[in-house]
Write a structure and sequence with these properties.
This protein has one domain. Helix 2 packs antiparallel against helix 7. With 145 residues, it is mostly helical. It has seven helices and no strands. The N and C termini lie far apart (38 Å). The mean pLDDT is 90. Helices cover 79% and strands 0% of the residues.
Length: 145
Amino acid sequence: MSSALFHRLCRPVGQSRSARTVEVFGWILLAEAPLILLAPHWVAGVLQLPELSPQAANYFRLVGLLVGGLGMLYVVSGRLDARGFVFASLLDRPLVPFIMAALWGFDIVPGPLAVFFAVSDGASFLWTLSAWRAEQRTARPPGTA
């Protein structure tokens, strides 16, 4: 069974459009992770964050590790067409802009970082939602509402 899953992971067959959007979002996260891990000061500069102390840079690297783990989860779930995960991401990702706004409002997260996460998750949520709804429309039997 695990070889069949690995084969599907290498060559996804029958992947839905919504699962593809989840996979692409995962690849974006996987691209961000090594940048955060290997060049935290540069990433902080791009996001217009305050200068990182050595300890803050190390904590930022931990964030990069978590982003990479999430990216892997999204890529694998998307490639395996894990419909439950796609649905769960539709519940989770629209909350991110509101949470980032609250964190920014309480001065916990700098504005540029909050905007980055809010736009990234918000836009990817809308893309996945659009694909999901299109799939639901085409899956309905004719004559049903």
